[in-house]
Amino acid sequence: MHASVLARFGHALSDPTRARVLLALRDAPGYPADLAELLGVSRQSLSNHLACLRGCGLVVTVPEGRRSRYELTDPKLAHALTDLLGVVLTVDPDHCASAAENGCC
């Protein structure tokens, strides 16, 4: 059971756009149109990524009238993302420095 949960988390992080969505939501909840603009992707593409992240159990929608706000399912996830990013930067800082120039890390 634990392995499948980690695999689901890994699947969510395996796509750079989904990873960027998670990092954006780590900082604050967001609305799809704002997230699409922030990440420089189409609304349709973002919608597909958000659906995947919902399916993985990592984000939830919070209805607000006619709009929906997205946020991480649990504040612990924000801490986990920060910790994971810190480990990756520690293990391979040169790779992440060059990747950051390309909009990754």
Please specify the SSE layout and strand pairing.
Elements: H1 2-13, H2 16-27, H3 32-39, H4 43-55, E1 59-64, E2 67-72, H5 75-91, H6 93-101
Antiparallel strand pairs: 1-2
Helix pairs in contact: 2-4, 2-5, 3-4, 5-6
Protein architecture, described:
With 105 residues, the chain is mainly alpha-helical. The protein has a domain at 2-73: Arc Repressor Mutant, subunit A. The protein contains six helices and two strands. It has a two-stranded antiparallel sheet with strand order 1-2. Helix 3 (32-39) packs across helix 4 (43-55). The model has no long low-confidence stretch (mean pLDDT 88). It holds the Pfam family HTH_5. Residues 1-92 form the HTH arsR-type domain.
Structural class: mainly alpha
Tally of DSSP helical segments? 6
CATH superfamily name of the domain at 2-73? Winged helix-like DNA-binding domain superfamily/Winged helix DNA-binding domain
Instruction: Give average pLDDT, whole number.
Output: 88
- Overall helicity: 55-70%
CATH architectural label of the domain at 2-73? Orthogonal Bundle
Tell me the distance between the termini: 29 Å
The unreliable regions are none
CATH topology heading of the domain at 2-73: Arc Repressor Mutant, subunit A
Strand order of the largest sheet: 1-2
How would a textbook summarize the main sheet?
A: 2 strands, antiparallel
Q: Identify the overall geometry.
A: globular
**Which CATH C-level class of the domain at 2-73 is it?**
Mainly Alpha
Q: What's the gyration radius in Å?
A: 14 Å
Q: What sequence of helices (H) and strands (E) makes up the elements?
A: HHHHEEHH
* Beta-strand percent range: 5-15%
Question: Tally of extended strands?
Answer: 2
